[in-house]
Design goal:
This protein is of the alpha/beta class and 202 residues long. Helix content is 35%, strand content 15%. It is globular, with a radius of gyration of 17 Å.
Length: 202
Protein backbone atom coordinates (compact mmCIF):
# COMPACT_ATOMS: atom_id res chain seq x y z
CA UNK A 1 0.00 0.00 0.00
CA UNK A 2 1.16 3.51 -0.78
CA UNK A 3 2.20 5.77 2.04
CA UNK A 4 -0.30 8.60 1.88
CA UNK A 5 0.45 12.08 3.16
CA UNK A 6 -1.58 13.48 6.04
CA UNK A 7 -1.68 17.02 4.65
CA UNK A 8 -0.14 19.47 2.19
CA UNK A 9 -0.12 22.52 4.49
CA UNK A 10 0.71 21.73 8.10
CA UNK A 11 -1.57 23.50 10.55
CA UNK A 12 -4.37 24.18 8.03
CA UNK A 13 -7.72 22.41 8.11
CA UNK A 14 -7.73 20.70 4.70
CA UNK A 15 -10.64 19.08 2.89
CA UNK A 16 -9.85 16.49 0.24
CA UNK A 17 -12.24 16.43 -2.73
CA UNK A 18 -12.81 13.84 -5.44
CA UNK A 19 -15.55 12.77 -7.84
CA UNK A 20 -16.89 9.48 -9.22
CA UNK A 21 -18.77 8.68 -12.41
CA UNK A 22 -17.28 11.22 -14.78
CA UNK A 23 -16.79 8.68 -17.58
CA UNK A 24 -20.22 7.04 -17.26
CA UNK A 25 -22.99 7.10 -19.85
CA UNK A 26 -25.75 7.18 -17.24
CA UNK A 27 -26.56 8.49 -13.81
CA UNK A 28 -25.30 11.51 -11.87
CA UNK A 29 -21.73 12.42 -11.11
CA UNK A 30 -21.01 12.25 -7.37
CA UNK A 31 -18.38 14.11 -5.38
CA UNK A 32 -17.21 13.97 -1.79
CA UNK A 33 -15.36 16.37 0.49
CA UNK A 34 -13.64 14.99 3.58
CA UNK A 35 -11.79 16.61 6.47
CA UNK A 36 -9.88 13.96 8.41
CA UNK A 37 -8.72 14.33 11.98
CA UNK A 38 -4.96 14.87 12.29
CA UNK A 39 -3.23 11.51 12.54
CA UNK A 40 -6.12 9.51 11.03
CA UNK A 41 -4.79 6.11 10.01
CA UNK A 42 -6.21 2.97 8.44
CA UNK A 43 -4.13 0.20 6.91
CA UNK A 44 -6.43 -0.09 3.86
CA UNK A 45 -6.78 3.61 3.06
CA UNK A 46 -5.82 4.20 -0.59
CA UNK A 47 -7.16 5.36 -3.94
CA UNK A 48 -10.64 3.75 -4.25
CA UNK A 49 -9.71 2.22 -7.64
CA UNK A 50 -7.03 0.10 -5.94
CA UNK A 51 -9.48 -1.39 -3.43
CA UNK A 52 -12.06 -4.15 -3.67
CA UNK A 53 -15.74 -3.32 -3.26
CA UNK A 54 -15.70 -4.98 0.18
CA UNK A 55 -12.70 -2.86 1.28
CA UNK A 56 -14.37 0.34 0.03
CA UNK A 57 -17.55 -0.42 1.96
CA UNK A 58 -15.54 -1.15 5.12
CA UNK A 59 -13.55 2.08 4.75
CA UNK A 60 -16.66 4.15 4.03
CA UNK A 61 -18.06 3.19 7.42
CA UNK A 62 -14.80 4.08 9.19
CA UNK A 63 -14.43 7.41 7.35
CA UNK A 64 -18.03 8.45 8.00
CA UNK A 65 -17.68 7.59 11.70
CA UNK A 66 -14.23 9.08 12.32
CA UNK A 67 -13.83 12.03 9.92
CA UNK A 68 -13.97 15.51 11.38
CA UNK A 69 -16.47 16.34 8.63
CA UNK A 70 -17.62 14.73 5.39
CA UNK A 71 -20.26 15.30 2.72
CA UNK A 72 -21.34 13.74 -0.57
CA UNK A 73 -23.27 15.55 -3.30
CA UNK A 74 -24.31 14.86 -6.89
CA UNK A 75 -25.16 16.57 -10.17
CA UNK A 76 -27.87 14.94 -12.29
CA UNK A 77 -27.63 13.65 -15.86
CA UNK A 78 -29.86 16.55 -17.01
CA UNK A 79 -27.52 19.07 -15.41
CA UNK A 80 -24.51 17.33 -16.94
CA UNK A 81 -26.13 17.69 -20.38
CA UNK A 82 -26.70 21.40 -19.73
CA UNK A 83 -23.31 22.45 -18.34
CA UNK A 84 -20.96 19.60 -19.53
CA UNK A 85 -19.28 16.93 -17.43
CA UNK A 86 -16.22 18.97 -16.41
CA UNK A 87 -18.34 21.80 -14.97
CA UNK A 88 -20.69 19.22 -13.43
CA UNK A 89 -17.73 17.62 -11.62
CA UNK A 90 -16.72 21.01 -10.21
CA UNK A 91 -20.34 21.75 -9.22
CA UNK A 92 -20.66 18.38 -7.43
CA UNK A 93 -17.49 19.19 -5.44
CA UNK A 94 -18.81 22.68 -4.61
CA UNK A 95 -22.09 21.17 -3.41
CA UNK A 96 -20.21 18.68 -1.22
CA UNK A 97 -18.06 21.48 0.29
CA UNK A 98 -21.26 23.50 0.89
CA UNK A 99 -22.55 20.69 3.11
CA UNK A 100 -19.47 20.26 5.32
CA UNK A 101 -20.31 20.87 8.98
CA UNK A 102 -16.83 22.30 9.53
CA UNK A 103 -15.49 24.92 7.14
CA UNK A 104 -12.08 23.96 5.74
CA UNK A 105 -9.21 26.44 5.38
CA UNK A 106 -7.76 24.81 2.27
CA UNK A 107 -8.98 22.42 -0.45
CA UNK A 108 -7.05 19.52 -1.96
CA UNK A 109 -8.60 18.66 -5.33
CA UNK A 110 -7.99 15.42 -7.19
CA UNK A 111 -7.07 16.18 -10.80
CA UNK A 112 -5.54 19.06 -12.71
CA UNK A 113 -8.39 21.58 -12.85
CA UNK A 114 -10.93 23.16 -10.53
CA UNK A 115 -13.25 26.16 -10.39
CA UNK A 116 -12.38 28.27 -7.35
CA UNK A 117 -14.73 27.85 -4.40
CA UNK A 118 -15.48 31.24 -2.85
CA UNK A 119 -12.38 32.69 -1.18
CA UNK A 120 -10.87 29.32 -0.27
CA UNK A 121 -7.41 28.53 -1.56
CA UNK A 122 -7.01 25.19 -3.31
CA UNK A 123 -4.38 22.96 -4.85
CA UNK A 124 -5.03 20.59 -7.78
CA UNK A 125 -3.26 17.28 -7.26
CA UNK A 126 -2.79 14.89 -10.18
CA UNK A 127 -3.43 11.34 -8.90
CA UNK A 128 -4.05 12.93 -5.52
CA UNK A 129 -6.26 10.01 -4.45
CA UNK A 130 -3.08 7.91 -4.31
CA UNK A 131 -1.04 10.60 -2.51
CA UNK A 132 -3.17 12.29 0.16
CA UNK A 133 -5.30 10.63 2.84
CA UNK A 134 -8.14 13.16 2.62
CA UNK A 135 -8.47 12.79 -1.17
CA UNK A 136 -8.31 8.98 -0.90
CA UNK A 137 -11.11 9.15 1.69
CA UNK A 138 -13.15 11.42 -0.60
CA UNK A 139 -12.62 9.03 -3.54
CA UNK A 140 -13.99 6.15 -1.42
CA UNK A 141 -17.09 8.06 -0.31
CA UNK A 142 -17.85 9.38 -3.80
CA UNK A 143 -17.45 5.92 -5.34
CA UNK A 144 -19.47 3.98 -2.74
CA UNK A 145 -22.32 6.51 -2.62
CA UNK A 146 -22.53 6.54 -6.41
CA UNK A 147 -22.41 2.74 -6.69
CA UNK A 148 -25.23 2.54 -4.14
CA UNK A 149 -27.29 5.02 -6.16
CA UNK A 150 -26.72 3.10 -9.43
CA UNK A 151 -27.76 -0.18 -7.76
CA UNK A 152 -30.96 1.56 -6.61
CA UNK A 153 -31.93 2.85 -10.07
CA UNK A 154 -30.97 -0.53 -11.57
CA UNK A 155 -34.20 -1.82 -10.01
CA UNK A 156 -36.14 0.67 -12.15
CA UNK A 157 -34.23 -0.16 -15.38
CA UNK A 158 -32.72 -3.66 -14.96
CA UNK A 159 -32.11 -4.05 -18.71
CA UNK A 160 -29.01 -1.81 -18.51
CA UNK A 161 -27.36 -3.89 -15.71
CA UNK A 162 -26.30 -0.80 -13.74
CA UNK A 163 -25.76 -2.79 -10.56
CA UNK A 164 -22.90 -4.47 -12.48
CA UNK A 165 -21.53 -1.75 -14.79
CA UNK A 166 -22.49 1.30 -12.65
CA UNK A 167 -23.31 3.22 -15.85
CA UNK A 168 -19.87 2.84 -17.43
CA UNK A 169 -19.67 2.17 -21.20
CA UNK A 170 -19.32 -1.62 -21.10
CA UNK A 171 -20.20 -3.75 -24.12
CA UNK A 172 -23.37 -5.03 -22.39
CA UNK A 173 -24.45 -1.50 -21.46
CA UNK A 174 -23.99 -0.25 -25.03
CA UNK A 175 -25.86 -3.28 -26.42
CA UNK A 176 -28.76 -2.57 -24.06
CA UNK A 177 -28.86 1.07 -25.21
CA UNK A 178 -28.95 -0.14 -28.81
CA UNK A 179 -31.76 -2.59 -28.06
CA UNK A 180 -33.93 -0.53 -25.69
CA UNK A 181 -32.82 3.03 -26.44
CA UNK A 182 -31.67 5.49 -23.77
CA UNK A 183 -33.76 6.23 -20.68
CA UNK A 184 -34.20 9.29 -18.46
CA UNK A 185 -30.99 8.50 -16.54
CA UNK A 186 -28.77 8.54 -19.63
CA UNK A 187 -26.56 11.52 -20.44
CA UNK A 188 -27.87 12.58 -23.82
CA UNK A 189 -24.84 14.79 -24.53
CA UNK A 190 -22.54 11.75 -24.37
CA UNK A 191 -21.80 9.40 -27.29
CA UNK A 192 -24.02 6.60 -26.06
CA UNK A 193 -23.16 4.35 -28.99
CA UNK A 194 -20.17 4.16 -31.32
CA UNK A 195 -20.94 5.79 -34.71
CA UNK A 196 -21.30 2.42 -36.48
CA UNK A 197 -24.22 1.43 -34.22
CA UNK A 198 -27.58 3.06 -34.81
CA UNK A 199 -29.47 4.43 -31.84
CA UNK A 200 -33.07 3.32 -31.53
CA UNK A 201 -35.09 6.45 -30.75
CA UNK A 202 -38.76 5.65 -30.19
Amino acid sequence: MARLKNFKNKGLLEAGCDEAGRGCLAGPVHAAAVILKPGFRHKLLDDSKKLTEKQRVELRQVIEEKALAWAVASVSAEEIDEINILNASFLAMHRAIDQLKTRPEFLLIDGNRFKKYGDLEHSCEIKGDGRFKSIAAASILAKTHRDEFMAKIDQEFPQYQWSKNKGYPTKAHREAIQKFGPCSWHRKSFTLLPPQLKLKLD
